[in-house]
Amino acid sequence: MDRDVKEVLKACEAMIKEGSSTFYKAFGFLQSPRREAVFVIYAFCRLIDDATDEPERSCYTPEELAERFDQLETAEGHFIWPALRWLFTSFPVSKAPFWKQMEGQRLDSHLTHYESMEQLERYCYLVAGTVGEMLLPVLHGHPDRYVAESGIWLGKAMQIVNIVRDVGEDRDRGRRYIPLELLAKHNYTLQDFQSGVMNSSWTSLIEELCLLAGDWFEKGLCNLEAYPRQSAFCVELAARMYGAILEDAARHHYDVFTRRAHVPAWRKMTLLQQLLKKHGMPLPKEREESTAVS
Q: For 227, what's the count of Cα atoms within 13 Å in the CB-facing half-sphere?
């Protein structure tokens, strides 16, 4: 790996380290070059997300990202382009899920209030199930259809966690991912939502979403034994840490209007120790500092 490639991959690592401590800690246990490939995928997805959610700090508009991705072989001006060229050269990754990811993120510019669970599941697939499709050729040498489907379910489950965790922030941005269909089912009104009312209706509503996420997590982890051991460990660690966000939300009575649910350090350490033992994984000494849970 030449110096220029190492530099752009380091820049991608810096993005995931800053943007998602859960993903960084979980996938930091992978050996090179799989580890760097995950970082590149995360970095590009982060750019897509920022282009929609935080355009004032984004270096590209969604249209500019799509244009450059379409002309990836010659795209310049940002470290992500040589990093992506390295990714597609090094692993049998398809461009299709990247295009779907961009399609899903563009929904946020016009579809801000969801009506049905069917709409929500499609959104979860486009913005998160596709990440499972991106990662699969990196994490698994020869995945079959069942392993591929599991990766999609896992991504969708993680997106439900994001939606629950970010209810308050999204509401303040003028977005409501929780479908009107679900609000009506639990007799929770739009006025209640705007006011951040926490009552038994809100609790039952969020608990239903958490049960859905749990079901999708179960489907996402059901073919874990088919992965290489190291990949299986990293995938399960990421999933369990993400699932623990919902545990924290429950401990605070699903107050996701005024606080952002997170996983305490002690819980992260417990999960790490449990899964290291389960998968027979020693803590790689050369990665101890960067993967230490804090």
A: 25
Q: Is the pLDDT of residue 212 over 60?
A: yes
Fold of 3-291: Farnesyl Diphosphate Synthase (1.10.600)
Which amino acid belongs to residue 222?
Answer: C
- C-alpha triplet 118, 93, 103: angle, nearest 5°: 35
Q: Note whether 121 and 155 are within 8 A (CB).
A: no
Residues 72 and 81: their CA atoms lie apart, in Å, by 7
Tell me how far the alpha carbon of residue 172 is from its chain's centroid: 21
- For the chain, give every domain's residue range: 3-291
Structure confidence by residue, pLDDT tens digits, 131-163? 999 999 999 978 889 999 999 999 999 999 999
CA–CA separation, 40 vs 13, rounded Å?
7
**CA–CA distance from 17 to each of 13, 47, 196 (Å)?**
6, 14, 32
Other beta carbons within 10 Å of 224: 18
